[in-house]
Each structure stands twice: as C-alpha cells, then as structure tokens.
Amino acid sequence: MGFEPSKADYYLWIKDCGTLYEYICVYVDDIIAASLNADALLEGFRLKAHYKLKGVGQADYYLGGNYGRIKCAYAVDTCYLSAHAYIKNICERIEKTMGVTLKIYQIMDPDYRPEIDSSLVLCEDLISKYRMLAGSAFWAAALGRYDILYATNTYARYNILPREGHLNGMLRVFGYLKTFKKAKLVFDFRNFTHDLGEEIEHGWSELYPNAKEELPPNMPKPKIKAVKITSIYDASHAPCLVTRRSVTGIVLLLNTFLLRCTSKRQNTVETSTYGAEMVAGRLAVLQVMDIRYKLQMLGVPVEGASALLGDNQSVITSCSLPSSNLKKKHNAIAYHLSPYSRSCCGWSGKAILY
Fold first, then answer.
1. What tens digit of pLDDT does each residue of 93-110 get?
2. Cα–Cα distance measured from residue 311 to residue 325, given in angstroms and rounded to the nearest whole number
3. Which residues make Cβ contacts (< 8 Å) with residue 173, sequence separation at least 6?
4. CB atoms closer than 10 angstroms to residue 77
5. How many angstroms separate the CA atoms of 98 and 39, rounded?
6. Beta strands 65-72 and 61-62: pairing type?
7. How many CB atoms lie within 10 A of CB 236?
C-alpha cells in the first residue's frame, strides 16, 4: 500500500500522501494508525476480512494507555495520555496477590535510605513478586507517569536481592499511583516562550569553522509546522551512601509538551558537583541529538538550535568558552560534545548563557 518502515523506528511505517504523511505503528498484534481516514487503511490492509478486530475506531486505549480529548485553558480541544485503566487493574491485582490495601499519599519516605536497609531478605516467592512490581511500575512510567520514575529506578536496583524495606517502598509507589490514578499527561504544543538569555559571541566559529547540521540524505520532506526542542537537566551529587554515584535527571520538551523524562544513576563516581553536572549535560545533549534525528526522519522539521538548560554556573560558563581547559578526559570529551552538538543542532556560531 506504499508504506515503508521509517528510519526513526522500524516498526513505525510511513507513507507520503502528498500534503501530509500517514503513519502506522505495529506492536506485535496491536496496530494504531495516524491518518485522516484510518478506517480506509484497515480496509485497505484487508484486516477486517481475515481477523476479528477489537477496539476499532478513535484511539482511546492502546498498550495499557488511555487516550482522549480534553478542554483546557490554552486549547479548546487537545489530546491527553493517561494510565488510569492500567493502574486500576494492576493495583487490584497487587492487593489481591499481596494481601494488602494500597493507600499512601507520599511516593517516597524522605528519611528512608534503601542502600543501607538492613531488614530481612525476602523469600523466593516474594522476590518474584517484587520483580513483578518493578516491571509494572516501569510500564506505568512508560505510559506517561514520569512522577514515579525516580522511585521506580531506585527500588529496581535491588531486584536481585530485595529486602522487606524495599518491598514496602515499592508498595508505597503503587499506593501513590492508586491515589492519583486519574493524572493525565496533556499534549501542549504551544511555543516555548521563556527568556533564554542573551546570545554572546565566543569564537566557536574559529574552533569549528565548518560546523553545520548534518541532515540525513534520505530524510522525508517536512510537511508540518516546525517544532522546538528544549532540554532541562540536573544532577544529584553523590546521594548514594554506599557507592556515592550521582543521579542524572533530564526533562525533554517538544515545544512545551513533556516528551521524555530520564532518571538514571551515573556510571562514574564524580568527586564534585561540576563533574556530575557535566555528565548529566552530556547525556542531555545525546538525547537531543537522538530526538532531532527521529523527528526529522518522520517528516517533522525542527526549528533552529535546541536549547540546553542547566543550573550549574561553572558548567555553563566553561561550556560557553572555547578557551576552557579541562584536565579530566571524560569531562573534556563532554565539553567538546557541547559545541559538536551545536553543529548537529543548527548551531549558528553563538553560545547562549542561561
């Protein structure tokens, strides 16, 4: 029917329809289509003639996620993503399996340190159930419940040998989800209008004279309005009392829509806040490069350079100056990735101070 696997994702198929693109996403035996006439696509694939299809029509449930339309202050009609059906089902299953009643309003106890927990190790049966809880929490986070991502990553580190305290903490996460199961992630594509500061010439064009964005040669022709990508990153320096490894936190915005969240423990042990922030910034740059490529391979144009926002003045200053001298090799590599990313992200030869 003219569909081809996209370069962004092999299981996301794309078709050029002249003034727009049509998309079909396949996940095992689940299909979702983006088209002006999705029913005609199903008829064209002759699926209805050979298979008994369920849930055909306007998308309202897909892979555990609930979809719908909502009115809000900034839009008469916009879409939302929610995991309330999945959360309702999994919480009922947990209460039945574990013999508990989930009712917690705070996602984590601020005074609890799971790395030094000395409670009893769980039995083999409870270890299996603990891993089920971790996997279920990760899927809820994948469906837009980014508010549990840090807690889920923290407790999932103990999947091999969890203790009673870790199990209580994981149950606390689901108690929080049960309490706020109706939370929605609303699609907001208004322009990002926050003041990003002044652009200052720092001579990067002398160090990278031919820097420009390398666009894929087989990139689909853009057919919709351009979008802006903004990444906000931070690092929690050495919170783990055992390993002293830092944690990276990244929020990636598509215009003003929350597209992706990341909470990840860093691989290295950084001796300073500067080093932890530099590692977090490098990961944020890589994510921006990744999402820019995927969007452009789906026919979505990206407007100008992508903004990278952080709160460590030392990192911002040193990454804005071509004359910076960094003695640690991995920091120096991250430092040069920053101007390189400007060449991959529409860099104009200017650094921006935030």
1. 999 999 999 988 889 998
2. 21
3. 107, 108, 133, 137, 148, 151, 152, 155
4. 8
5. 43
6. antiparallel
7. 18
Domains of the chain with CATH codes = 1-57 (no CATH), 84-179 (no CATH), 199-352 (3.30.420)
CB-based burial label for 254 (10 Å; 0-12, 13-18, 19+): buried
Q: What is the pTM (predicted TM-score) of this model?
A: 0.87
Adjacent-strand bridge partners of 138: none
Query: What's the alpha-carbon Rg for the chain, to the nearest Å?
Result: 23
- The dihedrals phi and psi of 148, each to the nearest 5 degrees, come to -105, 5
| Phi, psi at 320, each rounded to 5° | -100, -10
The answer to whether 15 touches 2, Cβ cutoff 8 Å, is: yes
Torsion of CA 339, 343, 345, 347, to 10 degrees: 80
The Cα–Cα gap between 251 and 300 comes to 20
Mean pLDDT, residues 253-259 taken together = 92
Other beta carbons within 10 angstroms of residue 24's beta carbon come to: 20
Helix, strand and coil percent figures for the chain, each rounded to 5: 35, 20, 45
Q: Closest by alpha carbon to 354, among 190, 189, 194, 212?
A: 194
